[in-house]
C-alpha cells in the first residue's frame, strides 16, 4: 500500500516537474501533501535535479530557439519557447531594480521582461514593437521572482498580437497586450 | 538699418533660446535665416552659453523639483519640470540601447524615458504606475536625440492621467498615456 502510494506520488511528481518546472520543493510538497524532505528524497531517487539546475537546463535549451532578436536580449531567463506560439521567462527582482523611495520595482523592468519575451516568440528574422497596452496590478518588490507567460493570440499580415501575463508566485502583477511587427531581413527598414 | 535688423534678430534669438532651449546653433540659424557663424557671434555678444552648457544648467535647476521619485531615476536628462503640470526630458540613444539585429532602439528605453518623466511630474511624495497605453510610431536609432514631453491631463482622487509624446527632432516616434497612482508616505503600501 505504502509502496503503491509512493509509486503514484513519484509519477505525479514527474508530471508536475515537467508541467511546472519552476515549482520549488516546498510548492511541490504542498501540492502532493507530503514533507519537503520526501520531495527531496523522491527527486534524488528519480534523478530530478534541484530547481536552480532545472531552470538553467531549460534556459540553455530554450535560448537557441529565439529568432527575431538575440537570445541574450531577452530580459531575465527564457525558460520555454514555442516559436510562433508561446514563451515563458523568469526574472528576479534585485535591489537595483526598485525605486529608492517606494522600494517598488520600476515599471520599465516588467515592461522589458514582457516586451522582450513577446518579441522572442515571433517566428520571423526581425521584429519591433508597435503598440503596447499595459496594466500594473500589484507592486513588485526586491526578492520577488516574476514568471512571465506570453502567447501569440493572432497574426494579421506582418502584425503579431501577443498577450503577456506576469505572476509573482500565484498573484498576477502585470499584464500587457502587444502588437509587434515583423521586418524584412534587410538591416532595419522603416516600420 | 543693419543695426536695427541685428537688434531684432538678437531679441528673437533670446526668445527662441528661452522657449526652445535645446535647439542647436544650426537650427537657430535656419529659424532666423542667417549663418551659423552669425548665431555664434550673437550668442557670444549676448552671453548665451552653447547648447551643451544650456542643457546642463537647465537639468541641474530642474532636478531639484522632483518629488515622487528620486531625480536620478529620471531616464535621460530632465530639462523642464512644472510639478503637477508638465515636464520635458532629453535622452540620447547609444549603441548599447539598440537591438543587435535591427539596430532599432529597444522599446523599453522609450518606455522608461516616458514613464519616469510622467512619474517625475506628479506632485506627491510617492507614485507608481497603474496603466500604460503605448504606441511606437517610428524606429529610433543610434545617435537619435529624443525629447519627451509629458503633460498632466487630469487628476481623479489619487489617480493621475499623464500623456507623454517623444519626438526625434520633429518626428513623433512614441506616445504614451499613463495612469499613475500616488501613494501615502508610509514606505510603500499596496496600490
Automatic annotation (TrEMBL), chains A, B:
GO MF term set: DNA binding; DNA-binding transcription factor activity
Keyword rRNA-binding attributed: no
SUPFAM superfamilies linked to this entry: Thioesterase/thiol ester dehydrase-isomerase, Winged helix' DNA-binding domain
One of the protein's GO biological processes: negative regulation of DNA-templated transcription
InterPro entries named among the record's database cross-references: HotDog_dom_sf, Thioestr_dom, Transcription_factor_FapR, WH-like_DNA-bd_sf, WH_DNA-bd_sf
Keywords carried by this UniProt record: DNA-binding, Fatty acid biosynthesis, Fatty acid metabolism, Lipid biosynthesis, Lipid metabolism, Repressor, Transcription, Transcription regulation
Any one Pfam family match given in the protein's UniProt record, by short name: 4HBT
Record's keyword annotation contains Lipid biosynthesis: yes
Residue intervals of the Thioesterase domain: 119-171
Domain of life: Bacteria
Protein name: Transcription factor FapR
Native organism: Megamonas rupellensis
Source organism phylogeny: Bacteria, Bacillati, Bacillota, Negativicutes, Selenomonadales
Amino acid at each position: 500500500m505504502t509502496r503503491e502510494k509512493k509509486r503514484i506520488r513519484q509519477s505525479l511528481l514527474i508530471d508536475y516537474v515537467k508541467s511546472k518546472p519552476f515549482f520549488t520543493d516546498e510548492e511541490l510538497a504542498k501540492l502532493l501533501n507530503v514533507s519537503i524532505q520526501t520531495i527531496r528524497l523522491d527527486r534524488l531517487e528519480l534523478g530530478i535535479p534541484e530547481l536552480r539546475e532545472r531552470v538553467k537546463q531549460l534556459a540553455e535549451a530554450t535560448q537557441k530557439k529565439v529568432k527575431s532578436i538575440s537570445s541574450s536580449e531577452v530580459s531575465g531567463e527564457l525558460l520555454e519557447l514555442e516559436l510562433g506560439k508561446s514563451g515563458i521567462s523568469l526574472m528576479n527582482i534585485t535591489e537595483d531594480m526598485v525605486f529608492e523611495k517606494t522600494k517598488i520595482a520600476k515599471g520599465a523592468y516588467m515592461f522589458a521582461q514582457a516586451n522582450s519575451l513577446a518579441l522572442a516568440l515571433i517566428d520571423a528574422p526581425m521584429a519591433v514593437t508597435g503598440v503596447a497596452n499595459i496594466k500594473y496590478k500589484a507592486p513588485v518588490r526586491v526578492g520577488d521572482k516574476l514568471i512571465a507567460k506570453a502567447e501569440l493570440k493572432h497574426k494579421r499580415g506582418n502584425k503579431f498580437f501577443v498577450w503577456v501575463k506576469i505572476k509573482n508566485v500565484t498573484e498576477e502583477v502585470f499584464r500587457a497586450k502587444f502588437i509587434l511587427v515583423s521586418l524584412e531581413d534587410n538591416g532595419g527598414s522603416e516600420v
